[in-house]
UniProtKB/TrEMBL annotation, chains A, B:
Single annotated GO MF: transcription cis-regulatory region binding
Residue span(s) of domain HTH lacI-type: 6-60
Protein name: LacI family transcriptional regulator
Source superkingdom: Bacteria
Key words, A-Z: DNA-binding, Transcription, Transcription regulation
One Pfam family matching this protein: LacI
Length: 345, 345
DNA sequence: TATATTATTGCAACCGATTGTAATTTTTAA
DNA sequence: TTAAAAATTACAATCGGTTGCAATAATATA
């Protein structure tokens, strides 16, 4: 039942030419006569030939595979990025192996090892929130396998990074809240060892500074952004203590949506009591009541950008200057969760 | 700079034994003396040896890779399933290649071809919504490569399928609305050539029947569940025509959330005017106002189940009875979007 | 001590494609 | 018509493990 696999030797035998010629013919090598190529392709199609990637990889020491390690797949942002990467990379003849770290350094290390053993030609990484040690990427560097970090990056390794301007985004979000009359703006974000959160925080602080508002430690919370964490943060630290801020800037839309729900559950009005701004422009930010003001995060564009850089590098002559810092632009998307002043006042 | 790759021949030479013994030693072959094994492992670690999967795959004609094709990654349900699959499959020493069809048959076909050429040991598929032709799976069948369909399945190929009881789920959702006093229940779902939507529709119809409510064609809409489609469906067909239903059962939570937002935007009260039930128990169903009653879809469990079946098959003696139909249980999760009667009435 | 068992290890072919170099054929130039 | 140049094609080694079978070493049995 199991059909025998067709090899270039089978094709060669049937065509009375050498396997070499078949191999070159299939690769459209210029040295092969066009008529011969046609005969090869025709027979290959007829016999249902498929190239054996392992033999090819083994010989060429290249896999045409790119590994991706991300914290999680389940956000609109992440799947947009992946979508962008996949499209570009596929067109260039590469495959993707995708894995999730589930925000854990240990899983990220395991994934990296797997990618390494699978001999990916390049690695694309968005770091897990608690990754502090980067030694799992050393093997790639040693073998000159390019790594690109995006979104959650690090300066600890000087690879290429692709990010948005998180500082600006944090600034815009905060300034918007200030413009809307907020003076006590709570900022809830992730592990500030991560660039994205650190930079947003810097933007937040700068906006406060520029508007003569003092930064207050008690208006800054760093947690894992889970529903439970948001609940604890808002209920225990804010609501029960009657330290009601008048603005809330949360570092992602899911967490912002949790926050919104929790605050409403506590009887607060959004945006009248507390104006809320999220981050990412995930679907979820548009279906809450009120919909959430957020930062647009151009995932697709980011993905395509990443792919292009890698492909140019891999298909080019591998020039080693693969450590540029690419910063994409972002915008603020204003929705009802933060509008407290008429624009035509 | 580029470090030379260490092979079993390097190890063999250093240990003064044959490559054969090294190979067997690394595989923990019983014929190899335990002391020899230790020497091999120690040296391997010291020299930074890594197995070359291509050479191994080439020789063994097996890749230890499992392919996954899904419509999209960006739903809590899908990423739960993948998470479940990945965990189990990783433990058993397999890798995953994941790709998205973006709900398009053409992309699904391309993905399938890629998987085939990458010689995955098995394929896991949730069909794109418009896949009507299944010939892209034929090559797998011919080569006895197992395929498991989950969620979006087909009976056109007799492979193993893993699904939830969509009929029951549809029934429960509908009956719940009826219990809440709804009599004109609009059902919006996807392409009913797909089992999931067809079965939910059957459940919907049966529930109506059991409660002496006639099925009305005008209370059934099949579309692509996008925001635009929901908008068109609700605005054009329902609201403008003043055919106000009193219940709405939407086949996934994102679409239900869109619907909720659109209806509220049109001035309708949920659940007083229209009670709403979604499907999947995605995060989004919990943050709308009101939160949406939905069907719990145990993604993780489904993923682990799929992985177990495959691994048992692959690691076992490949007994060919790989065409069972597995149906997982589901529940209704009641939230405010559908509660119109006090439970203690 | 001789012989039979059992435990270890190694030889050599093989998986299927790729590629430097050489050989052959075809085309062009003299 | 013949030598030189260009176009095609083929030989054979190579990539790095894997595995059937033979060979050798160690241990047990008579």
């Amino acid at each position: 039942m199991q059909e025998k696999e067709v090899t270039i030797y089978d094709l060669a035998e049937r065509l009375n030419i050498s396997a070499t010629t078949v191999s070159r013919g299939l690769q459209d090598h210029p040295a092969i006569n066009i008529k011969t190529k046609k005969r090869i392709f025709d027979l290959a199609a007829e016999m249902g030939y498929r190239s054996n990637k392992f033999a090819s990889n083994l010989r060429r020491q290249k896999t045409n595979t790119i590994g991706v390690i991300v914290p999680r797949l389940n956000s609109l942002f992440m799947s947009s990025v992946l979508s962008g990467i996949e499209r570009s990379v596929n067109n260039a003849g590469y495959n993707l192996i995708i894995s999730q770290s589930f925000e854990k350094e240990s899983k990220e290390k395991t994934n990296a090892k797997t990618m390494f053993n699978n001999r990916v030609d390049a690695l694309i990484v968005s770091l897990s929130s608690d990754t502090a040690d980067f030694s799992h990427f050393d093997p790639f560097l040693k073998k000159n396998i390019p790594i690109i970090f995006f979104d959650r990056t690090t300066e600890a390794m000087n690879s290429t990074t692709v990010v948005i301007d998180n500082f600006k985004a944090g600034y815009l979000a905060t300034e918007h809240l200030i413009t809307q009359g907020c003076r006590e703006i709570l900022h809830i974000t992730g592990n500030i060892d991560r660039n994205v959160y650190a930079d947003r925080l810097k933007g937040y602080k700068k906006a406060l500074l520029d508007h003569q508002i003092d930064f207050r430690e008690d208006l800054f919370i760093s947690n894992d952004l889970s529903e439970g964490a948001m609940h604890d943060a808002l209920i225990a630290h804010v609501i029960k203590r009657k330290q009601l801020p008048d603005g809330l800037f949360v570092t992602n839309d899911s967490a912002a949506a949790f926050a919104l729900t929790i605050l409403k559950g506590a009887g607060l009005r959004i945006p009248e009591d507390i104006a809320v701004v999220g981050f990412n422009n995930d679907l979820i930010s548009r279906v809450t009541e009120p919909p959430i003001t957020t930062i647009n995060y151009p995932g697709n564009e980011m993905g395509e950008r990443i792919a292009r850089i890698l492909i140019d590098h891999l298909d080019g002559d591998g020039n080693p200057d693969l450590n540029s810092q690419i910063v994409l632009n972002t915008d603020l998307i204003i929705r009802a969760s933060s509008i407290r002043k008429k624009t035509y006042e």
